[in-house]
Amino acid sequence: MIQILLTEDQLSPSQCESFIADDAAGGHVIFIGTVRNNTSKKTVLYLDFEAYGSMAEKEMKKIAEQAASKFNVFHIVIHHRIGKLKIGEIPVIIGVSSAHRKAAFEACEYCIDTLKESVPIWKKEFFEDGEVWVAAHP
Amino acid sequence: MNIDILAFGIAKDLIGKRLTQMTLEQPVTIADLKKELIGLFPDFQKLSSFSIAVNEEYQNDDYFLQPNDEVAIIPPVSGG
User: Fold this and answer.
1) CA A116, CA A121: separation in Å to the nearest integer?
2) Global ipTM
3) Is A135 on the interface with B (CB under 8 A)?
4) What CATH number has the domain bearing residue A27?
5) What are the chain A neighbours of B80 within 8 Å (beta carbons)?
6) Residue A59: which domain range?
């Protein structure tokens, strides 16, 4: 089963883990993305995430479906938060369960790598002396 | 034809608003639209790249836009 969520509310790792639980699973892999306090040695104050919501949800679903067909897994959950996030808060959680650990690790990595390449979500970093859209310029 | 264009992230900052309308002569491809955008807002050229989504799907430069398509400018994404 697949669960996708795009929300302005706090994300919950335990809720994601409950969703992927399965008696036939030998393991859960959960990636939790967190807001880092620096980038290129500059202090980051906070991030602001914006999404093309309807398309972002579709793209996240596509990624989970691709991962489910590529790897031998039971359940995949992808939650992404938007809005203003403080240092240490969680913008993204990806959880995968499978019978054997390798498939879950691979599927989880595939999901986060592909999400970062194709899902229409943007983050702006705020510093003491300015702000920048991440990855916008070469 | 008139098309409504959604802009997100830095594209919204460059255009100055989230929803903008452009008048384009049919037939018009995504390549034509990109050229038009760069003409109006030269800073689009400074971006690492930008894509166009039509009706919530990425489309290539040779795609022909139709009236009532939902067109969105997708600058480099940075989720996660």
Assistant:
1) 8
2) 0.95
3) yes
4) 3.90.1170.40
5) 33, 80, 91-92, 112, 115-116, 119, 121
6) 2-8+17-128
